[in-house]
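Project standup — Tuesday

K.O.: blocked on the structure for the chain from last sprint. Re-posting the sequence here as requested.
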Amino acid sequence: MKKKPSFSLWPRLIISIFLIMIISLLVMASIAFIIYKSKLFAFYLPKSIFPLIAVFIMSIIISSFFTVIIGRRILRPIETLIRATKQVAKGDFNIHLDEDYKETKIRDMNIYFNKMVRELSGIETFRNDFIVNVSHEFKTPITAIEGYATLLQDKELSEEEHDEYTKMIIESARQLSVLSSNILKLSKLENQEIVVEKTNYQLDEQIREALLLLEVNWSKKNLNLDIDLIPVNFYNSEDLLMQVWVNLFSNAIKFTEENGSIHVNMNQTIGWIIVEIADTGIGMTEDIQRHIFEKFYQGNKNRNVEGNGLGLTLVKRIIDLCNGEIEVKSEYGKGSTFIVKLRNLSFNSKYQE
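H.V.: unblocked you, prediction finished:
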């Protein structure tokens, strides 16, 4: 297919206006000539017609001059926008349009275009980082499984070595399962805007149940639990919020040394339920706190603990869906406190009664 030649917008505008003027001139001249030849009006004389034609020609020249100036000023930003859009379509996000135009509409057009390009660039960067992170997180346990499975082929292995290698394979497989599950959950939640399945349930009992589910973990480290929960009847997604408590308690247990403590406190104000989960663990620096809810972010690479950097991202997304808030307060070496605020519009609670 033969590609049609492209012309700039402003020359096309000028040519179009010029042609319209020429056609108008020819029409008017033809009418004047017909009137003159037909002698319908005796007072029309050649000397009275041609000055009019001269004036019209001068108006064409002057109009064309100003059309060139105005056309270039108005249409050049549009041409620039078209070229920039083509570059973005090719994947080049290093485009920036001038935002200093005096014309408000053109300035707004460029401002919003630049904003769009920045958003697209961020999405592209995030997509690339996500692929790299997922690949890395999957590669580690898969490599471990392959390595220990190869070692198991040695027929001279002792029973202790066999059990150890088998345990490592099971643990790596479990990590893959958790990672896959978290990615699927996060993908689903990111495409979800509202919480559909809501029920009335006892929030304080749910928090206790989450701690019981992790009893093996905190009892193994001989952690002291300090629990102060008021009875609250809450209306929201029971399944989603259970994931919040399990993830927060899991983190608190992982980063708290043996014989440490975990404090859980819940109170209620007008329209809000506030849950605080504090630990006496290793804590976080200010830089880690700023990124703690980002995907695959793991603040201290030397922690030597399980995790794939998705747990707190899930927590943040669920809290947002439930119209709540979450914040973290921490000091490195002195533990961390996660504060979850949930809206309780009904404000129904046994505590009130």
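K.O.: great, moving the ticket to review. Residues 1-6, 41-45, 347-353 have pLDDT under 50 and may be disordered. The two ends are 79 Å apart (CA to CA).
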